[in-house]
Design brief:
It is a single chain. By secondary structure, the protein is mainly α. The chain has one domain. It has seven helices and no strands. The protein has helices at about 1-10, 10-20, 30-45, 55-60, 70-75, 80, 90-100. The radius of gyration is 14 Å and the shape is globular. It is found in: Membrane. One of its GO terms (cellular component) is membrane. Belongs to the mesothelin family. Keywords: Cell adhesion, Glycoprotein, Membrane, Signal. Pfam families: Mesothelin.
Protein backbone atom coordinates (compact mmCIF):
# COMPACT_ATOMS: atom_id res chain seq x y z
CA UNK A 1 0.00 0.00 0.00
CA UNK A 2 1.25 3.52 -0.74
CA UNK A 3 0.30 4.53 2.81
CA UNK A 4 2.99 2.21 4.15
CA UNK A 5 5.64 4.00 2.10
CA UNK A 6 4.31 7.40 3.14
CA UNK A 7 4.80 6.42 6.78
CA UNK A 8 8.42 5.31 6.24
CA UNK A 9 9.40 8.50 4.43
CA UNK A 10 10.50 6.62 1.30
CA UNK A 11 7.33 7.32 -0.60
CA UNK A 12 8.88 9.30 -3.44
CA UNK A 13 10.86 6.22 -4.50
CA UNK A 14 7.64 4.21 -4.45
CA UNK A 15 5.92 6.76 -6.70
CA UNK A 16 8.86 6.85 -9.10
CA UNK A 17 8.19 3.13 -9.66
CA UNK A 18 4.43 3.69 -9.91
CA UNK A 19 5.00 6.50 -12.41
CA UNK A 20 7.01 4.18 -14.65
CA UNK A 21 4.56 1.26 -14.41
CA UNK A 22 2.03 0.32 -17.08
CA UNK A 23 -0.74 2.91 -16.82
CA UNK A 24 -3.23 0.67 -18.64
CA UNK A 25 -3.40 -1.72 -15.67
CA UNK A 26 -5.77 0.68 -13.90
CA UNK A 27 -8.61 2.32 -15.83
CA UNK A 28 -8.74 6.11 -15.48
CA UNK A 29 -11.99 5.88 -13.47
CA UNK A 30 -10.57 3.37 -10.99
CA UNK A 31 -10.67 4.64 -7.39
CA UNK A 32 -7.22 3.11 -6.81
CA UNK A 33 -5.76 5.29 -9.57
CA UNK A 34 -7.20 8.45 -8.00
CA UNK A 35 -5.94 7.30 -4.60
CA UNK A 36 -2.44 6.84 -6.01
CA UNK A 37 -2.48 10.40 -7.35
CA UNK A 38 -3.73 11.83 -4.05
CA UNK A 39 -1.11 9.93 -2.06
CA UNK A 40 1.63 10.95 -4.50
CA UNK A 41 0.70 14.63 -4.14
CA UNK A 42 0.70 14.24 -0.36
CA UNK A 43 4.02 12.37 -0.41
CA UNK A 44 5.67 15.09 -2.50
CA UNK A 45 4.24 17.73 -0.15
CA UNK A 46 2.94 19.75 -3.08
CA UNK A 47 1.46 22.98 -1.75
CA UNK A 48 -1.57 24.09 -3.72
CA UNK A 49 -1.66 23.14 -7.38
CA UNK A 50 1.82 24.03 -8.68
CA UNK A 51 3.82 21.04 -9.92
CA UNK A 52 7.58 21.44 -10.43
CA UNK A 53 9.48 19.64 -13.18
CA UNK A 54 11.06 17.42 -10.50
CA UNK A 55 7.64 16.51 -9.11
CA UNK A 56 6.35 15.78 -12.61
CA UNK A 57 9.28 13.43 -13.12
CA UNK A 58 8.38 11.50 -9.95
CA UNK A 59 4.69 11.42 -10.87
CA UNK A 60 5.35 9.93 -14.31
CA UNK A 61 2.08 8.80 -15.89
CA UNK A 62 0.12 10.09 -12.87
CA UNK A 63 0.54 13.54 -14.48
CA UNK A 64 -2.09 12.35 -16.96
CA UNK A 65 -4.66 12.39 -14.15
CA UNK A 66 -3.99 15.93 -12.89
CA UNK A 67 -6.89 18.35 -13.08
CA UNK A 68 -7.01 21.58 -15.03
CA UNK A 69 -6.01 23.70 -12.02
CA UNK A 70 -2.70 21.85 -11.76
CA UNK A 71 -2.06 22.27 -15.49
CA UNK A 72 -2.78 26.02 -15.38
CA UNK A 73 -0.75 26.62 -12.20
CA UNK A 74 2.28 24.83 -13.58
CA UNK A 75 2.62 27.32 -16.45
CA UNK A 76 3.68 24.98 -19.21
CA UNK A 77 6.00 22.77 -17.17
CA UNK A 78 3.62 19.81 -17.62
CA UNK A 79 2.98 20.14 -21.35
CA UNK A 80 5.73 17.75 -22.45
CA UNK A 81 4.58 15.15 -19.88
CA UNK A 82 0.92 15.58 -20.85
CA UNK A 83 1.90 15.00 -24.48
CA UNK A 84 2.68 11.39 -23.53
CA UNK A 85 -0.81 10.75 -22.19
CA UNK A 86 -2.97 8.52 -24.34
CA UNK A 87 -6.04 10.71 -23.97
CA UNK A 88 -6.98 13.82 -22.04
CA UNK A 89 -10.21 14.90 -20.42
CA UNK A 90 -11.99 17.99 -21.85
CA UNK A 91 -11.07 19.92 -18.67
CA UNK A 92 -7.39 19.10 -19.22
CA UNK A 93 -7.54 20.06 -22.91
CA UNK A 94 -9.09 23.41 -21.99
CA UNK A 95 -6.38 24.04 -19.39
CA UNK A 96 -3.67 23.22 -21.95
CA UNK A 97 -5.23 25.70 -24.40
CA UNK A 98 -5.25 28.33 -21.63
CA UNK A 99 -1.57 27.73 -20.90
CA UNK A 100 -0.63 27.86 -24.59
CA UNK A 101 -2.64 31.02 -25.24
CA UNK A 102 -0.99 32.77 -22.27
CA UNK A 103 2.21 32.97 -24.32
CA UNK A 104 4.35 32.06 -21.30
CA UNK A 105 5.57 28.76 -22.72
CA UNK A 106 8.16 27.65 -25.22
CA UNK A 107 5.25 26.04 -27.12
CA UNK A 108 2.89 29.03 -27.33
Amino acid sequence: SPSDYTATGNCSQFFVHVGKANVDVLPREAPQRQQLLLEALECLKIPGTEITEENAEVLGWLVCDLGGDYIRSSEGRLLKDLGRCGSLLPEQEEAIRDVLSSGNTTFG
